[in-house]
Amino acid sequence: MVTATVPVGRAHTARPAAPARSRAVARLRAGAGLAPFFGYTAVFLLLPTLIVVDGAFRGADGALTLDGLRDAATARTAQVFWTSTWLSAVTAAIGTVVGGVLAYALSTAPVTSVPRKVLTGFSSVLAQFGGVMLAFAFIATLGTNGMVTRLVYEQLGLQVPPDLLSSMTGLVVVYAYFQVPLMIIVFLPALDRLRPQWREATAVMGGTTAQFWRRVAGPILLPQVLGAFLLLFANAFSAFATAAALISQQTVLVPMAIESAIRNENNTGMDSYAQVLALGMVVVVALVMGAHALLLRRAARWTKDAR
Amino acid sequence: MTAPTLTGGTSHAGRARRRQAVLRRTVLSVGTVAMLVPVVALLEYSVRFPLTGAVDLSAWRKIVAGRTTEYQSLAPLWSGLTSSLVMCALTVAIMLGLLLPTMVWVRLRAPRAARTLELVCLLPLSIPAVVLVVGLAPVYRFLAGTPLGSSTVWLSFAYVILVLPFAFRALDAGLRAIDLVTLAEAARTLGGGWSRILLRVVVPNLRPAIVSSSFVTVAVVLGEFTVARLLARENLQTALFQVNLSDSQVAAAMAFVLLTGTTALLVTLELLATRTARTARPRGAEPSRSGVGREPRGDHR
After folding, report:
1. CA distance A300 to chain B (A)
2. What is the model's pTM?
3. pLDDT tens string B246-286
4. Is any Cβ of chain A less than 8 angstroms from the Cβ of B7?
């Protein structure tokens, strides 16, 4: 507050000019305090995003062109986008349903119970930091020498297909292992915010449990369920590590196509292809996350601290 | 659960509740077992020799032996681990040094920038790491030409961006719980300067939030694969990826340690968060969730 205390002696003569100037100085100082953070994010967040967006519309000579987009519009590109999309949609659906049920079961346990804490903690790890390690875990489970593979063979005489984990079916199973936990940690807070009073109010008015779910909890939770589905979709769509660790021979998903383009050092044209693919991903994820934000705003009517 | 409700006395409601309890326990047990199977399999895989099925602790012995010349193929693992640990420290330092003063500054001096700050901090949620890397490649090519060079540890700059939403949420929850403006004014009337307010007033009051944001940062950095892989740097995860090709049992053992270790870290954090929520907000306020629990996005990007 240095700027607010104008020296008393000179205050009379300087009165008309000082407040305006000191306000400007204060604003400048306030802005200066923000400079390090916004400078940093400008270089490492905004600049890379701009490079992607800008690069997608530039040719090798640096001129603005749509050639890059046109060149990228091949059956191959369509294929990876389609595969990524349905994989994300299917695993998001599985995650939403299974994770939703598990989250509900967890929400009926007291907040302080240890199983609940351990399960949510483990869910966070699986959902957010697993990646490569999750892929290893599945090789140990369903790979040719995996624990479940052997168990199923010894007990039931069934042979798990040896290439299961590098197939799309396998990928769906593995993705479910980070989608379900993500649903649990996203949806649990929403369930916790269902007030017991609402259920009591329904009961007082003669409503049954089924009616409570259909008429009260259902409509309140619906936007959040849809929002969670979109979030899971975006999560699977941007996932890279797990698929990369399981499938090394082919390029089936958009992030893998980006990787092979960016690591290809011989062909400089591939850089712009990577940028076009990246732009495509940004557009898809931004649309999905935008819809998610709208749904959450709708859900926030009933939940004070929803963000 | 045990609190009697309006209809708690009737046998019908009692039966319904018992049925619900049984159902809940069944669902939770099945879910927990299903989630644990791959982790148990990982442990089994690390000790079971694939051809004969004999139990064999050699993978663990190699890990315990640490960095020796005996196991050359594991050298990337140790250098990757070292890089990742250095990056944990560096990322936490940059994240706290950058984010905390800015968030405090915005609350005290530039409240009009609050929306922008939040928007920028949450932006990485909408930009997959794969996409960010495409744009970061030229930035890192430029960095390699500066005195900084192309050392792996500078990936920390990108990791700060990846953890920004997680860290922001954790710190934001902490700042919401204290009356920063009053505290800062009190410090100022006592003659405290800006740095003193930050270090002597804000930091001690925010300790739980600082701890949880740091834990989340560590977890993200230890699990990061995409950026390192696409920029052709070696961190813990890319090293694991590589070691898996030559010695998959060691990779499995290491993955087991990391998965269980990170879980322990986060459960501790969760316990810490609820404990401080109970002590820090005595006026019946809702317990604040830790940054982890609220975080909606994964790090598979």
Report:
1. 15
2. 0.82
3. 888 888 899 999 888 888 887 787 777 666 655 554 443 44
4. yes
Same domain (yes/no): B86, B15:
no
Q: Do B253 and B147 share a structural domain?
A: yes
**Cβ contact (<8 Å) for B128 and A238?**
yes
Residue B30 lies in domain: 11-56
CATH architecture classification, A75-191+207-299? Orthogonal Bundle (1.10)
Chain A residue numbers touching B299 (CB-CB < 8 A): 128-129, 131
Interface test with B, best of A25, A29, A133 (most B CBs within 10 A): A133
Q: Mind listing the pLDDT tens digit for each residue in B44-53?
A: 888 887 777 7
Residue B4 lies inside a defined structural domain of this protein = no
Looking at the predicted complex, does its ipTM rise above 0.90?
no
The three state secondary structure string of A47-106 is HHHHHHHHHHCECCCCCECCHHHHHHCCHHHHHHHHHHHHHHHHHHHHHHHHHHHHHHHH
Cα separation of B215 and A34, whole Å?
A: 25
B20 and B159 inside one domain: no
Quote the minimal CA–CA distance from B223 to chain A in Å: 5
- The amino acid sitting at B9 is G
**Shortest CA distance from A104: residue in chain B:** B24
Q: Is B27 on the interface with A (CB under 8 A)?
A: yes
By the CB < 8 Å criterion, does B23 face chain A? yes
Per the CB < 8 A criterion, the answer to whether B268 and B257 are in contact is no
Inter-chain touch B248–A139, beta carbons under 8 Å: yes
B52 located within any domain: yes
CATH code at B199?
A: 1.10.3720.10
Shared domain for B179 and B272, answered yes or no, is yes
Same domain, B229 and B280: yes
Question: How many residues belong to chain B?
Answer: 301
How would you write the pLDDT of chain B (301 residues) with one tens digit per residue? 444 444 444 566 677 778 777 888 888 888 888 888 888 988 888 888 777 777 777 778 887 777 777 777 778 888 899 999 999 999 999 999 999 999 998 988 888 888 899 989 988 888 888 899 988 988 998 888 888 887 888 999 999 999 999 899 889 988 888 888 888 888 888 887 778 888 888 888 888 888 888 888 988 898 899 999 888 889 999 999 988 888 888 888 999 998 888 888 877 877 776 666 555 544 434 444 444 434 444 444 4
Tally of domains within chain B: 2
Q: What is the CA radius of gyration of chain A?
A: 27
CA distances A165 to A79, A173, A258, B2, B110, Å, are 20, 9, 22, 45, 52
